[in-house]
Design a protein that fits this description.
This is NAD-dependent epimerase/dehydratase domain-containing protein. It is built from eleven helices and twelve strands. By secondary structure, it is of the alpha/beta class. The protein has a domain of 234 residues: NAD(P)-binding Rossmann-like Domain (Rossmann fold). Bound molecules: NADPH dihydro-nicotinamide-adenine-dinucleotide phosphate.
């Protein structure tokens, strides 16, 4: 058992990380932005005692001192998993809305650990394929964790803001390790599009996390006449992403100093739509089915990059779920959301 601080516990991915940590016997304090959000998580885990699951309120990770109190605990933390970071497109100012919380949140928590939590030996951060991709590469290029998104500060705008926020935040974390030489090691988990069942509290389908919006739109009729564009054509199931975080936390010796590109492979929104029709025939009227309607969700004619996920399998021992299982479980979970 390890005493772990998990940031952003109300999020789509973090909720699965929390469940995986609890199942594997760890003791977790998770940060949330309000007591109300803590209460929803408590209610979802009625039989878990306070020494196994507790909360710290961190309202805004863009503030550099946001984590100063949260990193201090009795018993003290041994590991920190930092997932909190904005992932949405409701952005008016990419620096304020995306870059500041991503970068300050990451640097802020590392500084706070170094200063006030000397028992922490390992930190796992949720980075992204956004920090790996270089869209200028030819379609034949094979991406792995050896690659870095070359985006520069001068290229930050509304369209690039999210990818920049993840790239700069992860770079800042590795720079911190190199320059500050703290008493802990670092691992980064770099997933592409994350699909999978929703286990965190959702008041309505309107507040669904960004990467599952496509599935919501495919089952509600919102995409009946036009399948959403896929965007990035690599995907991974949220339960595998969660397990990757936990394995990186547990296997400190092997995972220290490493980035991990976590992907199950290629997919398209057209494939997601086709699986939904096959598995949920009762939803057929809501899902795009004509060639014209499906086309926007298809692979690009020039093809899409290759991938190498060997390190995640060899070092972490990950095995990946298939797209059909992931889509079926996502749809079932969304059909359960009222409103
Ligand atoms: P969610 O939006 O569900 O989770 C984001 C979490 O970050 C929430 O807990 C949110 O709190 C918290 N957060 C955001 N901004 C702030 C802030 N300023 N102050 C405090 N907390 C904040 O998204 P995901 O679960 O999908 O994302 C989790 C992580 O995974 C992020 O780092 C994201 O970049 C990364 N990622 C996600 C991918 C995906 O496809 N889903 C792919 C690759 C990486 P609240 O809910 O209260 O707003």
């Amino acid at each position: 058992m390890t005493r772990i601080l998990l940031t952003g516990g109300s999020g789509f991915i973090a909720a699965h990380v929390l469940d995986t940590l609890l199942k594997r016997g760890h003791s977790v304090v998770t940060t949330v932005r309000s007591e109300e959000k803590a209460q929803k998580i408590r209610e979802a885990h009625p039989n878990i005692s306070k020494d196994k699951l507790d909360f710290a309120i961190v309202e805004d990770i863009a503030k550099l001192d946001a984590f100063d109190k949260a990193v201090i605990s009795d018993p003290p933390f041994e590991t920190v998993i930092h997932t909190a970071s904005p992932f949405h497109y409701r952005v008016t100012d990419p620096r304020k809305d995306l870059l500041d919380p991503a970068i300050n949140g990451t640097v802020g928590i590392l500084k706070a650990i170094k200063r006030s939590a000397p028992t922490v030996k390992h930190v796992v951060i949720t980075s992204s394929f956004a920090s790996i991709i270089d869209p200028a590469k030819p379609a034949s290029y094979i991406f792995s964790e050896a690659d870095w998104n070359p985006i520069t500060d001068a290229e930050v705008n509304l369209a690039t803001g999210y990818r920049a926020s993840k790239t700069f935040a992860e770079k800042a974390a590795w720079d911190f390790i190199e320059k500050e030489k703290p008493n802990f090691t670092l691992s980064a988990i770099n997933p592409p599009v994350v699909l999978g069942p929703v286990v965190h509290y959702l008041s309505t389908l309107a507040s669904i996390n960004t990467s599952n919006e496509r599935v919501r739109d495919l089952i509600t009729g919102a995409a009946k006449n036009s399948c959403p564009p896929t965007g990035a054509y690599f995907w991974v199931d949220v339960r595998d992403v969660a397990l990757a975080h936990v394995l990186a936390a547990e296997k400190q010796a092997e995972a220290a100093g490493q980035r991990f590109f976590i992907t199950a492979g290629k997919f398209s929104n057209r494939q997601v739509a086709e699986i939904i029709v096959e598995e949920f025939p009762e939803l057929k009227e809501k899902v795009p089915t004509t060639e014209e309607a499906l086309k926007p969700g298809d692979f690009p004619p020039e093809g899409w990059f290759g991938y190498n996920n060997e390190k995640s399998k060899e070092v972490l021992g990950l095995a990946y779920r298939g797209l059909r299982e992931s889509v079926v479980d996502t749809v079932k979970s969304l059909l359960d959301v009222k409103g």
